[in-house]
């Protein structure tokens, strides 16, 4: 066979297939909710990060419609040209008010996605340090944090997952003027929570920033949904907080919250913020309704119901040979092992009308392939009972 670029691509795809790593998209034909129609098949799903069930909330949907009528379908430009609407401004102000008990002199900057927000904040931090910076990254951090550090071309030390002693030793021996500890709040594949009180103590001791990605905690944790900051009652000028708005908030987007001087530096130097079209103002308008729900009694009721579902599932038996990860969050992973095993388990559950995607390497380490079960306040106790029965069937099949 003669060499061509397409032949090379085909050979690489064949390797992916042989390893059981081919990713396949599914077409969802209904509103984001636990009961979906997927490629024509009705399925009960435990895949979504819509933790509070707000993606289909009537008030949020109505606000999105209203936002489109007020602002149109798109923003038309970057934030620094003419794309920064009144809706974006109000969204940033409301987020700042939510987080002000934890972030002194807080200001908020909104982004189109969490991935872009992390690239933006990490590049801005590297820029201000002019190369004299070391990032300290948890071994299980999200890909967007890993990529942001790599693209910043800065020094990086990876510390063992949630290992405060390892991090302390690395910070003590570091000679860089600027130091940044980078961590998920709630880890997306294991569902555990970082030891943030200890991490912040270390950062303050060593004059380091703590960059906290709370994609899976914002809206879910804390009495009013202010995430891990409220959950641990953290407060410091050395905190930089990233939250997403397409998970618990149910819409789309992300934000960085930090001291006003740091956010102003991002406005001046964060290329992923400066050189991209602002997200649709209608989305920001819908998010105002979503955040009000999160902070209100309805948000508290939804979080309480979600905690009951977590307790219900986390105490149920699991099939022999599988491992339940220790998690008190809405992410409840069941580690199975090989790619072949997890793909078979996912297919068996789908045959029973339940959709849980198989998570494989490189998203998780080799031989820790898993079913990443995610719960939502839109699930019922009957939904979880059905899942537990399906898992019991799996244990004997």
Your description of this structure?
With 397 residues, this protein is an alpha/beta fold. It has two domains: 21-50 and 297-396, Aspartate Aminotransferase, domain 1, CATH 3.90.1150; 58-295, Type I PLP-dependent aspartate aminotransferase-like (Major domain) (Aspartate Aminotransferase, domain 2). The chain is 44% helix and 17% strand. The protein is built from 15 helices and 14 strands. The protein has helices at 5-18, 58-71, 79-83, 86-99, 114-129, 143-152, 164-173, 196-206, 227-231, 260-269, 271-274, 281-295, 297-314, 339-351, 381-396; strands spanning 35-38, 41-45, 106-111, 133-138, 155-159, 178-184, 209-213, 239-244, 254-259, 323-324, 331-337, 354-355, 358-359, 369-374. The strands form three sheets. It has a seven-stranded mixed β-sheet, sandwiched between helices. A four-stranded antiparallel β-sheet has the order 10-11-14-13. Helix 4 (86-99) packs parallel to helix 12 (281-295) and helix 12 (281-295) packs across helix 13 (297-314). The protein is globular, with a radius of gyration of 22 Å. The N and C termini lie far apart (44 Å). The model has no long low-confidence stretch (mean pLDDT 96).
């Amino acid at each position: 066979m003669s060499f061509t670029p397409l032949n090379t691509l085909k050979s690489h795809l064949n390797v992916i297939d042989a390893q059981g790593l081919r990713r396949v998209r599914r077409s969802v034909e209904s509103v984001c909710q636990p009961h979906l129609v997927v490629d024509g098949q009705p399925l009960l799903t435990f895949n979504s990060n819509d933790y509070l069930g707000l993606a289909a909330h009537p008030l949020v949907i109505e606000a999105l419609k209203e936002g489109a009528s007020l602002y149109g379908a798109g923003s038309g430009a970057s934030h620094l040209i003419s794309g920064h609407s009144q809706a974006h401004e109000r969204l940033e102000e409301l987020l700042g008010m939510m987080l002000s008990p934890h972030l002194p002199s807080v200001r908020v900057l909104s982004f189109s996605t969490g991935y872009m927000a992390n690239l933006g904040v990490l590049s801005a931090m590297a820029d201000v340090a002019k190369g004299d910076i070391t990032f300290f990254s948890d071994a299980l951090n999200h890909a967007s944090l890993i990529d942001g550090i790599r693209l910043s071309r800065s020094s990086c030390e990876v510390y063992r997952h949630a290992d405060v002693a390892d991090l302390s030793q690395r910070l003590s021996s570091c000679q860089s003027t600027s130091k940044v500890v980078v961590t998920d709040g709630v880890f997306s594949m294991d569902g555990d929570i970082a030891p943030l009180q200890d991490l912040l103590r270390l950062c303050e001791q060593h004059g380091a920033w703590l960059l906290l990605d709370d994609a899976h905690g914002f809206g879910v944790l804390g009495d009013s949904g202010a995430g891990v900051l409220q959950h641990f009652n953290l407060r410091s000028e050395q905190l930089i907080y990233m939250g997403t708005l397409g998970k618990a908030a149910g819409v789309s987007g992300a934000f960085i919250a930090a001291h006003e001087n740091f956010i102003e530096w991002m406005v001046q130097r964060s290329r992923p913020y400066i050189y991209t079209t602002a997200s649709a103002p209608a989305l920001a308008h819908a998010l105002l309704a979503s955040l009000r729900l999160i902070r209100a009694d309805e948000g508290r009721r939804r979080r309480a119901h979600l905690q009951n579902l977590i307790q219900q599932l986390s105490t149920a038996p699991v099939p022999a040979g599988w491992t339940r990860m220790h998690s008190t969050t809405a992410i409840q992973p069941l580690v199975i092992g090989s790619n072949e095993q997890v793909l078979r388990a996912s297919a068996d559950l789908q045959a029973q009308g339940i959709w849980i995607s198989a998570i494989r390497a490189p998203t998780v380490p080799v031989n820790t392939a898993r079913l990443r079960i995610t719960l939502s306040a839109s699930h019922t106790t009957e939904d979880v009972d059905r899942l537990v029965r399906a898992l019991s069937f799996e244990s004997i099949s």
